[in-house]
Specification:
This protein is mainly alpha-helical. Helices cover 79% and strands 0% of the residues. The chain has six helices and no strands. Helix 1 packs antiparallel against helix 2.
Length: 151
C-alpha cells in the first residue's frame, strides 16, 4: 500500500489533539473537535483536488474547445483518442515479435520493450500498478547485493 498523505496528516492532527487538548476538554467535546478537524481536512483535500482538475482542464483544454476548429479540431480529438490503443497495439506487436522469433534480442532492445510495456501499463492501469511491479523489474536488471547491471 502506498503513502496516503491525507491519512498521515489526519493521524498527526488527532495525535496532537490527544496530547495537548486531552485534559482541557470533556470526552464529547474532544470527539466533536476530532470529527470537525477530520471533516475540515477532507474538505480542503477535496478542494485541492478540484482545483488541480480545473487547472488541467484549463491548461490542456477539453474536447468541446477543439470541436469548433474547422479541420484540425476533429483531427486532434481523433489523435488524442488513438494514443493509448496505438501504444497498446504496438507493444503487443513487439511482444509477439520477441516471443515468437528465435532471434536473441540484445539488452538495449529488451530495455526499450520493457519501457514501452511499462508505459502501456501506466496508460491502462495507472501509476499504482507500476509501483507494485517496480521491485520485480529492478530485481530482473540488478544482481542481488552488488547493484551491478546484468544486461
Amino acid at each position: 500500500m502506498g503513502f496516503d498523505p491525507l491519512s498521515a496528516i489526519l493521524d498527526v492532527g488527532k495525535t496532537v489533539l490527544d496530547k495537548f487538548v486531552a485534559d482541557k476538554m470533556s470526552e464529547k467535546e474532544r470527539e466533536e473537535l476530532k470529527n470537525n478537524y477530520e471533516l475540515a481536512m477532507r474538505r480542503e483535500a477535496l478542494e485541492g483536488n478540484k482545483a488541480f482538475r480545473e487547472f488541467i482542464l484549463a491548461y490542456e483544454g477539453s474536447a468541446e474547445t477543439y470541436r469548433d476548429v474547422w479541420f484540425f479540431g476533429p483531427l486532434l480529438i481523433f489523435i488524442r483518442g488513438c494514443i493509448r490503443p496505438a501504444f497498446t497495439v504496438g507493444a503487443m506487436y513487439w511482444d509477439w515479435q520477441l516471443f515468437s522469433s528465435s532471434e536473441v534480442w540484445d539488452g538495449m532492445r529488451m530495455k526499450l520493450l520493457l519501457i514501452i510495456n511499462v508505459l502501456v501499463l501506466i496508460f491502462w492501469f495507472g501509476e499504482r500498478s507500476v509501483k507494485y511491479i517496480l521491485p520485480l523489474v529492478k530485481s530482473l536488471f540488478l544482481e542481488k547485493g552488488s547493484g551491478r547491471d546484468l544486461s
